[in-house]
Each structure stands twice: as C-alpha cells, then as structure tokens.
Write a structure and sequence with these properties.
CATH superfamily: Alpha/Beta hydrolase fold, catalytic domain
Shape: globular
Radius of gyration: 18 Å
CATH architecture: 3-Layer(aba) Sandwich
Largest sheet: 8 strands, mixed
Oligomer: single chain
Mean pLDDT: 90
Order of helices and strands: HEEEHEHEHEEHEHH
Number of helices: 7
CATH class: Alpha Beta
C-alpha cells in the first residue's frame, strides 16, 4: 500500500515539473525544470508577457555565455542582456542552463530541441516567429543551432562570438560584435558573415567600437536595435 502511495507521489512530482501550471502563466520571470527523455533534469528560465489574450507570441530562445553553470545560470544572462534588449517586444523568452560541456554538445543540442518542443506545445507560441540568440559561448551555439536546425527558427542573432564550424544558415542572421572584443577577433566574424552573404543568406553585421567582451550589459542597447530588423523579417515572411 505504501509503495503505491510513494509511486503516486513521485509520479505527481515529475508530472508537475513538466507541465506549466495555469497559476504560473502570469507575466513575470520563472525558474522552471523539466525532465528530459534521458531522465536527466533541465533547469530553464521562462519569461512571460501578459497572456490574457487569444493571440500567439514570438518566442526568443536565449543561450547563455560560458562559466560555471550554477542553478538558473541562464536567468542572470537574461536579466543582464536579453530582457532589457527586448523589453518593448511582446514576446515569450526561454533560456536553458547548458547541460553539456557547451551548446554544441549533443546533450545540450537535444535539451534545447526538447525544451523548444515543450514550450511550443504548452504556450501560445507563434511558431513562425521563433528567434535564437546567444552571447559568447551562447553565440557559438547560435551559429551552430541555426545552421543545423534552420527549420525551427525565423531568425538568429549572435552576439560576441564567431562560429566554430563552417558558417551555414538558411535563416536571416544578425551579428553583433565589438572591435574591442578580447576573446573573439573581429576579422573571423567578418569572414563568416561574408561566407553567409555569398551563400545567399540575409545577414546583417553591427560593429561596436568600444565595448569589452566582458561588458555584457552594455550590449543590451545594440541588441535592442535588432527589434526593427526582426519586424522587417517577419513582415517579409507574411508577404
């Protein structure tokens, strides 16, 4: 009898972890967890607008920078950069904690795919308006994911990062980089952008003059300038 009760309790916990409760669908920032197909737990940060309407919302997937991934490491990245940059855009934002060695790790790749699938099914997401963005290591992940899974994204935005692989993306791409970046030199980024252009990809490059790689918060303003670009991309998709 007790074993049945314990099993029911455990099942209920894991079900609740994976399902977004109705009372949590108010505007705000949430620290969430989900159980992946391999049985491991994925922590992610969820930012919601006011969902009290029948409309669907764009979705921004954010990939955080490097460092020791403490619980809800992704929240700091969002609050420093993504939330301030996109505050005027009525959108849902998600950012997982990287579960692998980096965002190109198969474990991380699969986790991102499962999270995207979950959120698109449980929240009013406009699947034609899904954007991937990332900073530094997350920017490398953005180059990687946009190239490997172009069908999932309407646009990609890489900040302070150059690709580790041959640049290839079929989705519109926006790149933000500083001449003062101490980690990633500008020249390889410019070369990657040129390769995308030669392949027919719609790509924009915004070069910043005076921001260090480690001044993450200062990239919020340059990142906010992508909103108009995104709206133009989406308007063209509707035509």
């Amino acid at each position: 009898m007790w074993s049945i009760i314990v099993l029911f309790f455990i099942t209920t916990i894991f079900t609740n972890i994976n399902v977004l409760a109705e009372n949590e669908l108010k505007a705000g920032v949430y620290e969430k967890q989900m159980v992946l197909k391999d049985g491991s737990m994925l922590r992610y940060t969820l930012v919601l607008p006011n969902l009290n309407s029948n409309k669907k919302f764009p979705l921004i997937l954010g990939l955080h920078y490097g460092g020791e991934v403490t619980p809800y490491y992704s929240r700091g990245y969002l609050e420093k950069l993504v939330i301030p940059a996109f505050k005027s855009l009525d959108t849902i934002i998600i950012a997982p904690d990287c579960p692998g060695t980096d965002w190109r790790d198969p474990k991380s790749e699969e986790a991102v795919l499962e999270l995207l699938d979950k959120i698109s099914k449980e929240l009013p997401v406009d699947n034609s308006h899904v954007v991937i963005t990332g900073y530094s290591r997350g920017g490398i992940g953005t180059w990687f994911m946009a190239a490997k899974h172009p069908e999932l994204f309407s646009a990609a935005i890489a900040v302070s990062a150059s690709p580790k692989d041959e640049p290839s993306a079929k989705v519109p791409f926006y790149v933000i980089h500083s001449r003062k970046d101490e980690i990633f030199e500008l020249e390889p980024v410019e070369e990657a952008v040129k390769k995308l252009q030669n392949k027919g990809t719609k790509v924009e490059l915004q070069i910043i003059d005076d921001i260090s790689h480690f001044e993450t918060v200062r990239f919020a303003d340059p990142l906010s300038k992508t909103i108009q670009w995104l709206n133009n991309v989406w308007d063209k998709d509707r035509q």
